Amino acid sequence: MDTFHVLRAVLFGLFHLCLYESNVWSFLLDGPTAPCPRPATHCMLETFNVVVQDLGCLGCQTGCQPGYIMTANARYYVTTGSLVGHYDYKGILIDNSKNVSEPQWLCEPGTTCPWGHFLDKMGSIESCSYCGQGCQTCQSFSKCDGCILGFRLTKTTLANGNEESHCATSGIPCPNPPDHCQHDVYANAVVGCQGCIFCEDGYLPTVNRYYRRSPQNKTSDYVYKGLTISGTIDINEPRYVCVQGRTCPVGYHNVSRGNLMTCEADLQVG
Ligand SMILES: *[C@@H]1O[C@H](CO)[C@@H](O)[C@H](O)[C@H]1NC(C)=O
Ligand SMILES: *[C@@H]1O[C@H](CO)[C@@H](O)[C@H](O)[C@H]1NC(C)=O
Ligand SMILES: *[C@@H]1O[C@H](CO)[C@@H](O)[C@H](O)[C@H]1NC(C)=O
Fold it and tell me: Which of 61, 112, 215, 263 is the most buried if burial means most Cβ atoms within 10 Å?
């Protein structure tokens, strides 16, 4: 996200907080509403799980059923294409920067925040706010502690002396992004496409045997969209892909590092 989007997200959060504090949430429902195309599930109340003008589908705006935690949905914000102007959803005009198919607030199972989110408050309700693109764990929006594989932690010192940290990318998307991935994937110089380390529910991040070229297929270093890639790596093959299953496939075993688990290839004998 660039500064504009960061600022907008922060202002939008403050705006919502003010609305909530003065108990006038219902003001949002004054205009026309429509059912959400993909409503959020396990909301405490369905009141805001509707499409409203400009904002799209608000989702679980007032908290979740027991056993679920109110979580900001990063996919609610559209980041590609023209972000100014509006589109029409069933006669309701929505900002181009909001995806009507993605509720702003979801209820995720559990009582702790999912990866990429930090514990925050919406009025008196505990909620999980978004750390920012590519950030695995953070203290607050502009203070990332660690990035997911393929992203690089970058620190900047602001004019007021405060330090911010974000996760940067090469800006070059992987040529073959893995299906069923929860995050964007980018190519990097030398190591190519690191692929997916947080897959959708029901899929596990699994090392791809074709990421490293076989000795016969090795080349000299080559250039992909301005990035120099090692000739031992195939840029078309992500290092981790999402494989369906609750346990690692045969020939792989799981390795855990903190809240991250991947399936790594067993050593081949013979
Ligand atoms: C909006 O969300 C839907 C559902 O996740 C997705 O298929 C679609 O590509 C998204 N559209 C944009 C413009 O991001
Ligand atoms: C070498 O690359 C080709 C084309 O990508 C592939 O079909 C072949 O299986 C590879 N050979 C080995 C030994 O991996
Ligand atoms: C991880 O490996 C352990 C030990 O082999 C196994 O008991 C467990 O079921 C595995 N978990 C997953 C999710 O594959």
Answer: 61
